[in-house]
Amino acid sequence: MAFLRKLSIRSQLFILAASTIIVILVIIFHTYSMMSGMITRSHEEYVKQTVSEIKKNVASNHDVIYRIMQDISYNPDVQDYLVETDKLIRYDRFTKLNKYLNSQKELKEGIQDIIISGNNGTWIDLYGGNRYVVPLRVSLSSRKVNGYYAGMQQFGALYGRDEKLIFATSITYSQQGELFNRNIGTAFFIVDASALVSEQEYSSKETGTQIYLLDRSRKIIASNSQARTGSDFKEMKLGSEMQSNQIVQLNDRSYVVEAEPLADIEGTILSMAPENELLRELLDIRKQELIILGIALLVLAVPFMFIINNILRPLKKLIFFIMTIRRGDLLKYKKRIALHGYMEISIVATELNSMLDEIDLLTQRLLETNTRLYGIELEKKKSELAFLRSQINPHFLYNTLEAITGIAVVEKQERIKAMTRSLSSIFRYSIKGASEVPLSEEIRMIESYIRIQQIRFADRFAVHYELAAEALAYRVPKMILQPLVENAVYHGFEPTLREGELWIRGFVADDGTLVIRIEDNGMGIPRDRLEEVRGMVAAPVSGLQEPSEQKSIGLVNVNNRIQLMFGSECGLRIESAEGEGTKVELTIKERGEQHA
Predict the structure, then answer these.
(1) Which of 47, 330, 517, 544 has the most Cβ atoms closer than 10 angstroms to its Cβ?
(2) Rounded to 5 degrees, what angle do the CA atoms 235, 238, 239 make?
(3) Is 140 exposed, middle or buried (0-12, 13-18, 19+ CB in 10 A)?
């Protein structure tokens, strides 16, 4: 809600309109969802009824085939033929048995062949299918099966180009003797799909609904589509996870899928209805509703925009008036605003005019008060000016140093001349010019400072300069390097008598940052003291520190000056090892045009 309060009135009104449209769309789509559910459930009931009829038909046809197979397997002539060893007797029985099998075949339309195959190699078939089922007989001879669905197979040109169903039943010897109750062979039925499922059961009453009868190997036994009998059904994975009215994506189309197990042949009855066909009329209704909604929105847009303008026009006039006042033109304070419109904006205009009257009165009082304060401040400045005039003129000190230099030249005191000339240069540099200078000028001042220190320390340390040309053009705060060099001399070289070296390096990094390194091989800083110094440098910037506040004030002040002028990402980084020396790195980000 806090976010909405920060938006303009126009934005809030548009959000309200958009929210209303969203609510209407949600209602439309919710209604569509409920109606699609009703249609889907109606389709589910139809499919269940159709599947139930198919299951009954399959069970009935399977039962007929099973009973015929049982009659053949228990027929004494069949059993005697399989166990007979005399070839003449077996030939006589072959003719009789062939007529019997043909009569059994005619009992059920769709039976293509009947094959009797004995375990001892004896066999009889009607149309030559024995050679195709020998592998099956071998695999089934070790177990007893009754009306078992053995799968689908192509039989060459014997029964047509489509694959046929194979059912098998074990033949158990039922007559008295040593072979009683022993498995002596297998009866195979080669069956067309029409013998198991009638074609008329697959004429769907729902547009586009496809029904498949699949065996355990997911081969198509029958369907109302153009799929060939015996072809593999690979469109989707079937299993126990299949649910009623499950939505499945196939070939970029959505299908409502239902699967029903078929226990008689360990298969599945699968129905697939295209969702867009199933909900086609409902989609047309939804399309019409959306068109009506679009037309209604266009009609309502005119009064909506009219109302928005009535609300916003006085507000815009008020805002323009306030912005005019904010520009500081005193003459504008004399003007007043008159707004005509709804009650709220009229009240705001009246209160604003009253406030401007009060501001005008307070402004007059403020001007009178400021006039008095200005007089007091003027007197104070006069007093400070008189105090400054009583101080030593800086030019007097500079001229004095020049006089000392002249005396040193006359007296041929080269070291005094060098020291006073360097000191004069430093003094002149510090009191004249801008607060920011090119790095090259800062380096010239450092050279003067180092000449003084080298004379003082009798050349106990050497200085090396490694400065890139583009670095020398950068503008830096005046006197920013002197405290760093002073620390290197007094804390690095003064406590020891051994000779030292000082490196002053400067370059510009790839990101345009100026990097200056002051490095010495002096005494270094103890670890505890180094951590203390780093802590003081890393402390939040609070302006320049007084010398009496803390130690290492030079480093702290340099770091604070850099961060105040160039940002917190700039500043000092200190590295040191006791007895090995100290390295102070100063970084300055480019700010505007740095070149002189």
Answers:
(1) 47
(2) 170
(3) buried
